[in-house]
Amino acid sequence: MKLDLPPLPPRALAVRTIPDAAPDLARVLDLPADRRALGIVTATSDDALFTALDQGTKASPADVVYAKSFYAGAAHPSGPLSGESIGIYAARDPAEIDAALAACLAYLENEAWFYGVALAGAATPVAIYPHVVASVGRYLAAQAGVRIGSALAYLIAPPLESVIGLDAACKAARVRVAKWFGPPSETNFGGAYLAGDLPACEAAARAFAAAIVDVCASPTSGDPRAVRADARADAPAVLATAPDGKYQALDTGERFADKPDHLTHLRDDRSLVPKTHPRIAARGKLDLLQSALLDAQVAADAGGARALVGELGEILELARALVGAEVTGQPVPPPTLWGMTADQIRDATHHTHELYGVPFMYPDVRQGPVIAKLALARAIAREAELAALAAFPPTGGLVTAPPARADLAHALNRISSALYLLAVRYVAGLYQGSRPPFGPVRGWKPPAPTGADRAGTKKAPT
After folding, report:
1. 20 to 30 A Cα–Cα from 164, which one of 27, 272, 295, 415?
2. How are beta strands 114-117 and 85-91 bridged, if at all?
3. Maximum CA extent, the chain
């Protein structure tokens, strides 16, 4: 999340690797027996480095085994290569270390920025870190006590500013304090990790920054509760609000005269959410699925498989209905395709060898463009199912509970099965224009049925 404030990008000061740590160094670092390769980095900012170290754990199996701030901050380093902090990765081999360091340094340079808030009469700005991690890796997840992949607002500022900003952040969105850094820290700052969904974390970070802009605009204001208009002017991207605006952010209640480009409608003008919202991401996957189905129809039409074009059309209509059901909240009826129920479709995909003489197959270049398009559409349907599960997780926090919109996930699961079934039927030659594969179909075949089994062999659904 970038703000309309002057950025204060951090810098890596020294980076080194150790392919095989000495036994005593491994002992004092408490390294696992299989992790002797090390990567070491120092940087001008501790919180920026810690965030970047976490990014490295998402790009590599390397673990952060040491991360510390230096006392008094970057203005008082012990040497020109010390900066404000040090981080150490450990991994099984140098290649894993290289991958972690590359991701860490790229994130440090391009994402993990402090920002400067101007203070009247001061030569240097007040440095703040209103950072949002959309999906934490193994390091920050452990530090904050949250699940890997959770969103996290990482909020840091000088002592008083950190307390005022944290109060505003907690009031602005549905977040909880996962860990508080009471001022002063080693670097004489303070702050917290705030846990919540991504839109809430972003709203909290904006409120944190806005409150500190207000403090800096009038440090000794007679009414500390008042939010000054001139503070809003100092940071339009932080507080670009209008009390009587037509548009309203769903999570924070902020109003806007004009719809910000980074927000979009969840339902209407009073329910704007960031475009990174999980439900918006799910809608994007549904749109992508429709495009892939249309692409498969075009390929089937070009190959003369007219019946397949029609069957894909039924799936396309179902996918379009899912979009409407997601937006309106209306339930999705149990899906049926080509006269088959959802259970019949699933059952048929488990018995393709008995029904069509085609094993559980792997798509192959010899099977032609129609199969390639069907395979791609199926993969996108599976992605859309995962996006729907992420957008509508189980209620009550129980992993074993069904998702809030189990109907959407179920329909997408069956679309995936239906697309696989169409691919099998195409390879089996059931469509006019089908292109028989040049050679045997690669896949797994069930064992030959026994005499008793033959009596119960399934027949192809009609």
Report:
1. 272
2. unpaired
3. 93
SS3 363: coil
Q: What is the pLDDT of residue 76?
A: 77
CB of 194 closer than 8 Å to CB of 175: yes
Q: How far is CA 22 from CA 14, 37, 73, in A?
A: 20, 10, 30
Cα(358)–Cα(414) distance, rounded to whole angstroms?
20
Write the CA distances from 416 to 83, 316, 382, integer angstroms. Answer: 52, 12, 6
Of residues 208 and 241, more confidently modeled:
208
160-183 mean pLDDT: 95
Res. 359: pLDDT tops 80: yes
Provide DSSP, 224-272. TT---HHHHHH-TTTS---TT-SEEBTTT--EESS--TTEEESSSTT-E
DSSP 392: S
Q: Is the pLDDT of residue 128 over 60?
A: yes
Query: H or E segment at 436?
Result: none
Q: Measured on CA atoms in the order 346, 350, 351, 352, is the torsion positive or negative?
A: positive
Distances (CA, A) of 159 to 120, 155, 178, 183: 18, 12, 19, 5
pLDDT tens, 42-80? 999 999 999 999 999 999 999 999 999 998 777 778 889
User: Domains in the chain, ordered, with CATH?
Assistant: 7-240 (3.30.70.1710), 278-454 (1.20.1200.10)
Tracing tokens 């397949």 back to the chain, one arrives at: 308
Q: Quick one: tokens of 159? A: 């002592």
Quick: pLDDT tens for 84-112: 999 999 999 999 999 999 999 999 999 99
Q: Residue 196: beta bridge partners?
A: 151
